[in-house]
Amino acid sequence: MVKLKGRNAIVTGAAVGLGSSYAKALAQEGVNVAICDLREEIHEVAESLRALGVNAVSYQGDVSDPDHVRTVVDGAREEFGSIDILVNNAGVWGASVADDDLDKSIEDYEQIVGTNLKGEYLFGRAVIPIMIEQGKGGEIVNIATDHMVTCGTPYFCCPNLETCPWGDSPRPTGGGGSMDLYDAGKWGLNGLLYGWAKALAPHNIRVNAFCMGATDSHMLRGFHNFEPSDQEVVSWMRAEDNAQAMIDMLQEGPFGRNAQNVNFCMGRPVQLEPAHDHVYVVPEQVRVGESS
Amino acid sequence: MSLSGKVAIVSGAAQGLGRAFAIRLAEEGCAVLGFDVKKEVLDVPGVTGMVADVSKREDVESVVSKASGMGGIAVLVNNAGTWRKTPVDSPWQQAIDDWGFIMDTNLKGVMMLSRAVIPFLQKGGGHIINLSTYYVLPAKSDGTNQPDTDLYNASKWALNGFTDAWAEYLEKDNVKVNGMCMGATDTPMLRGLFPTKQLPAEMASVVMKAEDIAGQMMEIIASGRTGENFGAWVGEEITIGVQPPLHKRITG
Predict the structure, then answer these.
(1) What is the ipTM score, two decimals?
(2) Do A195 and B166 lie within an 8 Å CB cutoff?
(3) Which of A152, A288, B120, B208 could form a disulfide with B185 if both were Cys (CB 3.0 to 4.6 A apart)?
(4) pTM of full prediction above 0.90
């Protein structure tokens, strides 16, 4: 287990929800944190991080704007001297359906795909050359969704598949008919995950993703008009628990898992699942178009 | 559903797979509108050609306007795609330009064209085919293709979101939505990867033929299945096989 104390991280979308939990958990481990968000509350979060005894800087802006990304990354490097960890968390949700008109759709594309895929792309591409130049490895974690995984029988080989208590209730992929742009952006993260992990492994830079199911967060409460029932809230995962899993994964260090989608599905314990042996292994090599 | 007399739209129809799809659909009796940024699209036999860029909204609207004047639209093949290497340590401005170059065609273009066509498909049912790559299927892939193709891969992975959501949303309208995840096919895009623009001999002897893939597309359409990614692998029979369980339809 490697120590995180004294390292420097960037967490995007850190004003609320998972992002603020990640930033707080990192600060509690002694990691200096640069944070950004659309919301001006981001500055208060930085204040609370500094109260934990670390250096923290905050930036208000839009991750789909390349100039903002440059400002955050260059600012963090100048403030901390290096960037060791990137948590690509900023994301937005909006309903979009197949027969929306073009005006709305183009606006949605720029906002949803712009934040959830382009934003993560830009932050990764801004940080990667810096991490390579530093020559001391690094960690990139993208935040994705459980819409991409079939919890119960993950399409990655689950080491415990034979005994998986959720194995009898596999779920299809997808978040439903009104999430086409949200899901497209999140699926697209797989391209970054695998492409970056492959290219960066020689530099000891790991790239992984958390595929998040329903977590008590600003975004999820927003689905419920900020009036979720107690029953719903109890069923959701807690952001603090997920942040602990993030710390656990970062502490694996350069020889830990790489190029993996780590699943966090509602109803399962919120903990880091065992590393998979391979990125893609399906037990019986089942393929689309073949009987299984 | 018989396709005879129905209108089909094929993007990127000047060459390779798109050309083969357009010709095959015309042979099946469709009135086919094929478009491409390349003017060779005007010479595809049996196909109404149009020079247009799927990444440009005005062009997309012109294409759909023209197609709707040809009759009832029943098929949309989202085939147009672009490719270039996008190294992870590219200079910043290059990284920004690469995003637009790849995504405006491969993802935003697919969305815009589909959004414009879908209201017509909803009138009488129909089919959408999204062209993807076998990298997005787990069984024979590590999730990437060549090094330095993060954005191309991202654009193709992202189509899973469309195929999944559209299949579910458009079920009520009898519109079927599927992905075709292509392995190496003898196309100008593949040839373009090699310095001589020719396939190496060992590859030329095994790669799939665009005409055979067009046959697979017709099988998919005839099957009436929806919400699936269909793979096609070099060296194996090109077929659609038996429908997998729901949770494996996209991921394989």
Answers:
(1) 0.95
(2) no
(3) B208
(4) yes
